[in-house]
């Protein structure tokens, strides 16, 4: 009895129970070592009711009694085990959550059965099947973390309007309202056995003034026309409590529809910066809520409430859930209802530092344990710390600590949480915004509009003077812009915003190297996003992002076009320090996998559309981050190409993983779990010379002897190509070119390794062997990739007649020249004599001619590395090799710069790059001169 006595020394409610029911106290002692879990609680329900959990139906009175008896067992055993240090926080909250779910399920089944006997079952008019009420647990109930003396927050929805099937018909809505009014007293009314849970329906649309039950259509209309930021916060944890009262009913489709509404409402795909002000208000409301209540309680200050006070539980929830609201739309892995699980995911994705997360979790566990101990005392929903010295001492003992240790620990945790709460927006990656000052006099007051316009005009004129001789041209362009945005259907708030942003834009562009050209690009961007208040809010909230955007647009017209095509990347500019950090591809791979795994429909199937969009968004984000680093001069063209190639490899590998289950049933009928497929990269990706907008030149190889393997891998190839190249709402990942496969466009989409080897040995042209010199395995099955590399080595190590090879190479070079005529008076960096193609052909010729003697030439070192290696082996003059390699590097760099400037063709005046051109021409002549 020692364990029970320990709890009894703290809990008055347990002492009173012991006086009237000593047998139950002995029962507690017998079960003190029993861990509370779903199985145990469900078995107790069956024992008490004599009915199965899933489809048993109790009478009204029996249901009331059984649930109260079950609550007594769960609550008091949780108390005994918790105060003895035998139960974790997860055990206690999990037990109370399961109890609440059972209470809702059983009261629903009982009430629904009772009403259906009178009025008939409510019928879905579309399917003509019985229609269930959808029971939604909100708050800690939805998160699986209910406290021991909690209210339960519920919302009730149903699929469609209709009527019941009985002889005395009533509308579905009326049926459900009657049902709710019957089921709630079963749970919440006090009687001789107490109560189960207090129930609260005030989180439903329109609160107490709204109907008790809402149809899904009405709910959707409310959510997306009237839903407020605090409701997004509330619906983050919402979860459906499975319950079935009618045979042959199917609520799965309704639940799917509900989830399809909840997710985009809570988790915006592109963070809505309009929400920042509302979220800040919510943060302040959290602070003020308890202060208002405390003013009505003499002698009670804000530090007394461990839930609502400074450094309390509510502040921890806000810190964690703010990051979820901001980033959960793009990172589905963050869409966790349970707070501790949400903290863990934020650590795994690198959004929360492990040391901060550990302190936050320890604080949360300590505060929740304290909350429970306070509630055990009188089985009351209290969060107030005692003021009486004796009770404060007793509380510490109940927590298993000395008084000094407990209060010092509590103060330390609350100080940490309060500090973190003040930094919540910075912690969520939003920094601390500089909220801009709007043009003087801007107001919704009609009497001030003329004065506002006059002052804005004066400020605009002053700003234009910074552009000196271009003032007239700029004034005309601004007039067109202002007139355009004022006649568009912009809200009054956005017209304030646009004026403010315009002033900041002029100031930012005036500081760039090309102010006039930059302001025109910025105006193009503002016109594109003028109807998207979220982007305007971002630029208004974070003028630093606007300054960085102006700097990037001034440096690169191509970057300006990228921003116009993908404004979703704009929020990356908020934290410039993060933008300049190196890409951790292994971490990115892990986070992407978790995010894609989290993209599921309500029936557990993958949400393919969301997965495809998520991968495209990631590709755009990382490409933009590399672009920003590139414009800051952080790495060479070669390093940039390596980074872009690594990104493409990563996305290809993940695409295979996601596409395979859409084609076959992995693991069924000898079908491998992972496909025996290798993706072979040719061209720029193969040579790791990938650019921002390069295509993927791919060949698909498989090694699978099963009877239907060819058919399956052909389907996989089609699906994989579609996965990568289809244009979705998030754009396209990459363009894919499969024409380098055996037999080109007439060939099979997927080729067996053996067929590939036969083709390369027997039928391939020399130009195809040229192409394979810089082909590589980039994604897929490692064993199949290794077999490709073996085939590649065999092909490239064949001994070749120098004269025949020279003739074939020169003929192909002539074809390429004819295919890319240059009729201008400029030097085409890539295709003209002395250009990049010449050096690439030299390198390919040397590999094909000498790889049999020097196998190191088979390594995928890129043109520069291979050319220097050929010089080291004495295959060409060492000096020519070094100068040629350096010249090629210069040409690649200049080509890259021209691309960033928006040039369609990489051409320069004949006087430029003359040394590099002559160096490569000299190298060409030394290799291909007639013997």
Could you walk me through the main structural features you see in this protein, from its secondary elements to its overall organization?
Strands 1, 2, 3, 4 and 5 form a five-stranded mixed β-sheet that branches. Strands 6, 7, 8, 9 and 10 form a five-stranded mixed β-sheet that branches. A two-stranded antiparallel sheet has the order 11-12. Residues 434-449 have low confidence and may be disordered. The protein folds into five domains: 31-266, Beta Polymerase, domain 2, CATH 3.30.460; 300-427, Nucleotidyltransferases  domain 2 (Four Helix Bundle (Hemerythrin (Met), subunit A), Up-down Bundle), CATH 1.20.120; 446-565, Four Helix Bundle (Hemerythrin (Met), subunit A) (Up-down Bundle), CATH 1.20.120; 648-796, Beta Polymerase, domain 2; 802-928, Nucleotidyltransferases  domain 2 (Four Helix Bundle (Hemerythrin (Met), subunit A), Up-down Bundle), CATH 1.20.120.330. The chain is mainly α and 931 residues long.
Short description:
Its cofactor is Mg(2+). Helix content is 60%, strand content 5%.
Question: Any descriptors?
Answer:
931 residues, mainly alpha, Four Helix Bundle (Hemerythrin (Met), subunit A), five-stranded mixed beta sheet, 60% helix, 5% strand
How much of the sequence lies in strands comes to 5-15%
Mean pLDDT: 89
Secondary-structure arrangement, i.e. CATH architecture of the largest domain:
2-Layer Sandwich
Compute the number of strand runs.
12
First-last Cα distance: 104 Å
Number of domains: 5
Kindly identify the CATH topology of the largest domain: Beta Polymerase, domain 2
Q: How big is the Rg?
A: 35 Å
State the helical fraction: 55-70%
**Outline:** elongated
- Helices, by number, come to 39
Major sheet size, sense and barrel closure:
5 strands, mixed
